[in-house]
UniProtKB/TrEMBL annotation:
Source organism, top-level taxon: Bacteria
Residue ranges of the region described as Disordered: 1-29
PANTHER family: CHLORIDE CHANNEL PROTEIN CLC-E (PTHR43427)
Gene3D superfamilies: Clc chloride channel
Keyword Transmembrane: yes
Species of provenance: Acidisoma silvae
One Gene Ontology MF term: chloride channel activity
Subcellular location: Membrane
Identification of the protein by name: Chloride channel protein
Length: 491
């Protein structure tokens, strides 16, 4: 393989089931048969002049920063208007959880019903009248152009519905905006196809970095998930675009990090728990990934989506009238868990309700990311498991310390991005460097179990079925038949 091959990636065409990071436009709205990446031109004969490459690198960072900042400000504005809090400022000290809690149960329900109507009619119109959506991964792998208008409409619908209480994530929208703008700039300036694909990937990282104030995570996401390379030239461009986007976003969003995390100590007990929780997080994260993929694969794209999204969001609205922590991507419950304010009973309840809400909205056809929802599921799962450890061994470890370790491992598996997950949680929380050790230990164990289960070839669901029904197989026609067991000769 030539050293200048920027994009030849081992993961293209891999056999494992697609995860959310394989679906940068969630659920790969228009499923496409997997195809190998386009062959690259000669690195000598077809190379972008350096001034053009530098120019587009700067433009990608700036456009990703402006796009991410604009989407985040729009999100806050809609949250304040619909739930009626902090109407004097777009960015305020009152967070979304406090605003939703202060709103009446009737208002919460009506806002979610409104979100269902917007989601249904909006995505029906996108699928009916828009050009076929192209995921970021497909654009990076094959060079397919992302349609500007349809992609922007798709991203705006995600932001509006999440602001109004959709339980899905908002992180895909800024990645899409960053990528589509980077691709447009690259083609206008005249970059080679390979460098255009590089900029599309870096645009996604820039958007992620801008909206969450995570410059290193944005670059690592590009290198680990989209390009699967650490070539120096690519690393420099990915870091540059993410840093520029982050600094641009500071203008409107400030430079605060996402979650407040107390200075918990790292103890021997926490290290042992991290090693034990890894396999559990591996199984749970893979199950969550397969469940969300199953739900997305059955979502309607025709006019039926209007009724299904209305029903799903009305269900979420009813639950929200009772549980104000439910609406949104899950940032509120994550903060409660990290600060140690979440107790096991409410955490288990919230975990179940969050899963129901996410799956219902995905089945209905709503779109959005799974990064923060997955992080919330991992955090809520870690609370009772950490409390159980304390009850058995009387260790007195703060629950928030369990949460950051378990949530990192769960996110790594559910999104299949272990390095990005670790870096992301460190930038999200500004946790002390000592926490890297238990986080890495838990993530390594979780990924080992995940790869082992995925390597079975049937996924977690298939493995469970084969264990429960060992004699049931499928014949060539896809019909169930009973495997004949070999006869044992009697002596």
């Amino acid at each position: 393989m030539p050293d200048d091959d920027l994009y030849k990636r081992e993961g293209l065409g891999r056999a494992h089931p697609p995860t959310d990071t394989d679906r940068d436009i969630p659920s790969d709205v228009a499923p496409v048969a997997s195809a190998p990446a386009k062959p690259l031109a000669s690195p000598v004969a077809d190379r972008t002049p350096l001034p053009r490459l530098v120019l587009v690198t700067l433009l990608t960072g700036v456009s990703g920063g402006i796009g991410g900042m604009g989407l985040a400000l729009l999100l806050h504005f809609i949250q304040h208007i619909t739930f009626g809090y902090s109407l004097h400022a777009v960015i305020s000290d009152e967070n979304f959880l406090a605003g939703v809690t202060a709103a009446s149960p009737q208002r919460r329900f009506l806002v979610l019903v409104g979100a269902g109507l917007i989601a249904g009619f909006g995505w029906w119109a996108v699928h009916r009248f828009g050009r076929p959506l192209v995921s970021i991964k497909k654009s990076v792998a094959e060079g397919t152009v992302m349609p500007m208008g349809t992609t922007i409409a798709h991203a705006l619908l995600q932001i509006v519905t999440v602001a109004m209480g959709s339980p899905l994530g908002r992180e895909v929208a800024p990645r899409e905006i960053g990528s589509v703008l980077a691709g447009w700039c690259s083609r206008r300036v005249g970059l080679t196809p390979d460098d255009t694909r590089l900029m599309v990937a870096c645009g996604a990282g820039a958007g992620l970095a801008a909206v969450y104030n995570v410059p290193l995570s944005g670059a690592v996401f590009v290198l680990e998930v989209l390009l699967m390379t650490v070539r120096p030239q690519v690393v420099v461009i990915a870091l540059t675009t993410s840093v520029i986007a982050t600094v641009i976003a500071w203008i409107g969003l400030g430079d605060d990090w996402q979650y407040q995390f107390p200075a918990y100590p790292v103890s021997t007990g926490l290290m042992i728990w991290a090693c034990l929780i890894g396999p559990i997080a591996g199984v749970a994260g893979l199950g969550y990934s397969e469940l969300t993929a199953w739900a997305r694969g059955r979502a309607p794209k025709n006019a039926r989506i209007i009724l299904t999204t209305l029903a799903a969001f009305a269900l979420v609205g009813l639950l929200t009238a009772w549980l104000p922590q439910l609406p949104g991507n899950g940032k509120g419950p994550i903060q409660l868990a990290l600060s140690g304010a979440e107790t096991p009973g409410p955490a288990v309840l919230m975990l179940g309700v969050k899963l129901v809400a996410v799956i219902a909205c995905l089945l209905a056809g709503a779109e959005g990311g799974l990064l923060t929802p997955g992080l919330a599921v991992g955090a809520l799962l870690s609370v009772p498991l950490g409390e159980l450890w304390n009850a058995v061994f009387h260790s007195g470890i703060p629950l928030g310390a369990f949460v950051i370790v378990g949530a990192t491992a769960f996110l790594a598996v559910s999104m299949r991005m272990p390095v990005t997950a670790i870096v992301l949680l460190m930038e999200f929380t500004r946790a002390g460097q000592d926490f890297l050790i238990p986080m890495i230990a838990a993530t390594a164990g979780a990924m080992a179990v995940r790869e082992g289960l995925a390597g079975h070839g049937q996924g977690l669901a298939g493995l469970i079925k084969s264990c429960l029904f060992p004699r049931t197989v499928l014949n060539s026609a896809g019909m169930t038949q009973i495997k004949t067991l070999p006869q044992v000769k009697q002596p």
